[in-house]
Amino acid sequence: MIQFILKRLFVALCVCVAVSAISFALMFLSGDPAIAIAGSGGRAEDAEAIRIAYGFDRPIPIQYLDWVWSAMRGDFGQSIYFNIPVSEVIGNRIGVTLKLGITAFLVALVIAVPLGIAAALKPNGLIDRMALVIAVTGQAIPSFWLGLMAIVVFGVWYGWVPISGAQKWQGYILPVLVLSYYAIPAMMRITRSGMIGVLGSEYVRAAIAKGLPQHRVILGHALRNAVLPLVSLAAVQLGLLLSGSIVIESVFALNGMGRLAWESLLRSDLPVVQAIILLLSLLYVVLTTAADIVNALLDPRLRGTS
Amino acid sequence: MRITRLSGLVALVSAAALGLADPAFAGKAENTLNVAFAAEPEPLDTYKIAGREGLILARHIYDGLLYKDLDTGEFKPALAESWEFTGPLTMEFDLRQGVKFHNGADFTADDVVSTLNKVIGPEYGTRYSISVDWIESVEKLDDFKVRINMAKPFAGAVEMLADALPIYPHEFFEAEGSAGIARTPIGTGPYKLVEQEPGVRYVLERFSDHYTESPKGDASIDTIVVRAIPEMNTQYAELMAGDLDWIWRIPPDQASRLEGRTQILSAPIMRISYVGFAPDSLGGESPIAQQKVRQALIHATNRGAIVEAFAGGASKVLNTPCNPAQFGCTQDVVSYDYDPEKAKSLLAEAGYGDGFELEMIFAAMPRPTAEAIAADLANVGVTLNLNEQQYAAGVGQWRKKEVPSFYSNWGSYGIGDVVFILSNFFGGGADDLVQDQELADWLNKADTASDRAEREDLYAKAVKRIAEQAYWMPMYNFNVNYGLSPDLSFTPHPDEFARWWQASWK
Lengths: 306, 506
What we know:
The structure holds two protein chains of two kinds.
Chain A: H1 2-29, H2 33-38, H3 44-53, H4 60-72, H5 86-121, H6 126-140, H7 143-157, H8 173-199, H9 202-209, H10 214-226, H11 228-243, H12 246-251, H13 257-266, H14 270-298
Helix pairs in contact in A: 1-14, 5-6, 5-8, 5-11, 5-14, 6-8, 7-8, 8-10, 8-11, 9-10, 11-14, 13-14
Chain B: H1 2-18, E1 32-37, H2 52-61, E2 66-69, E3 74-77, E4 80-87, E5 90-95, H3 109-119, H4 129-132, E6 135-142, E7 145-150, H5 157-161, H6 170-183, E8 191-197, E9 201-206, E10 223-228, H7 232-241, E11 246-248, H8 252-258, E12 263-277, H9 291-300, H10 303-311, H11 340-349, E13 356-362, H12 367-378, E14 382-388, H13 391-399, E15 405-410, H14 422-426, H15 437-448, H16 452-469, E16 472-484, E17 488-489, E18 504-505
Parallel strand pairs in B: 1-10, 13-14, 13-15
Antiparallel strand pairs in B: 2-3, 4-5, 5-7, 6-7, 8-9, 9-10, 11-16, 12-15, 12-16, 17-18
Helix pairs in contact in B: 3-6, 9-11, 10-12, 15-16
């Protein structure tokens, strides 16, 4: 098992390196970073000075290897835009994203799993239909629209919550709710289909026949097996919530990593973009590996197999 | 009825449970101006930043040696009480006494010498070389007198000294450098920064020790709270709710919707849009190498309709490759009316009666305007292939002479003098894709002349030549739409520097 995990980690790290190398090269395809940094008022002379100052005149593979070497020593360089170390820039933002993503994930989990179970117990019943409405609307409504509607209703009309910003904890209420609304459908539907499959299996029927109370059958026997695909999905969902909250962070003016990634791309702040890509790749690796380990713990049949 | 009851119930329960009611208060009541920017201001070392947001904050915190009154065009004393050219390449400044920095330090010649000598060094990394590359060195003559030795004659020198080159406190700047100034901005300006959460929130407070003779004096607003809110719709919501008093860069269609619900101002700015032609591109084989073809393209484009439909507000069609508000931008030039028939006959004369295909890169311009140009040109048989690019990619290709036409914009750093636009595009440098030697010579002479009349004559010749040769199709000057609290008095300026020290409540 340990050997298996180590192998998986090694492969995953190779994936990280490959992702960062490809993204590094892609950044250069989207235009000359020196011109982008010089900005819309930059003359050809300014771009040339920047090209030399930041070493963009060197071959791309050399620039990449330099970056990797520094990153391995924990040095992600200096942000071109902010003129301070990249680690400081990311450190200033990561808290907002972690708070937002993890809270939204927990809210989604707390709603999705019980709703999925309830829907599975009575397919086509009232709760199942309600769950379907949530699933369809959650998937179909664009997040920026829902966010703006939430702002208009709860921020402007009623004035219950701050419209934007995270100066107060209340500023997180709307973004967390809107963000979690997008994570609910997938987790709820996978819980529901898993439960329906498991509830029809022989061992559950046997448990019921033994006269076990319903809650023990559902939570002790059925859920443990039905939850396996949910664990893998939840890991990916958490990754998505942490890395993909650009729209929500923009709508609610939260200064997190999503916004930082997007804005750094636009202003060609290469050191920041590179560090974020590496960080997010690592995040996915950690989350998917953790999900595999949890699944292996839940289902002994998975241990020792790939 | 049921919906009303339900929403009322939800409101009641939620408010009781959360206790979050946070009534919007107008900034006027607390004499606090609440401002939003969509873009995050850069760290406030003015020499290293380009974004207007950071520069606006910086102008409230720092002062320069001089100040330009845009209403009169007059240069006024600021940190320098008086100045004079003591030779073709030397300027001397008598500095003001009794000026305090926000940290309590006294302003002296050491601050000017230290700041300017440091930022002209190539290792400092000043963002725009044009702003400081004309300075050779700065000498202290006594505690309140300095001399600037110029590296070359530069007509934009006084413009640059007027608030674009701020003075930092020398002891702090020498000890902490650029990063220190960015983390703890300290100036002599009318407002001091008392709180900074980079990218989120900046709080400026009126500086009570600000020198009374300052051209930025008499600020009436006590506190300015600036927040970065990237989503414009969120800004509109906050403006309507009374949580914001000042927003800007509202797109024209949104501005007309907001009109009547709040105070909207539209003001012209220095930035202009243009289609540049590169006769020299593609080995000179492109049809636009011919003057008649270029003239035909301008006659074929209904610029008036494009401006009216897409730019609106205070934007106007331009005939010159510069902003009429700039010194040296004569308007006495040949103009090209919208006349498709004339365009067709010019094309026929040039041997392109059957039309041709033309590639146009566009960057940092709205797609609908580019499509409108293409539609107009199609009417005279010219197929315009639009290639939208990120600014960096577009400019890169343009500079390599890979495309014959380029649709973009230029802001002249917000400065009202053609020295900050014409030479960049027609002065023979890397951005000059016309390479008209005589034109470049006039411009280089004008840029380095100290006599204002001589400069004006030379620029007029240059502007006329560019128009007559149709090297550019000038499109229009940009405008900025501001959304303001109905209680706020605010005067916009064409250099896009919001002067909140002049703002007041009605």
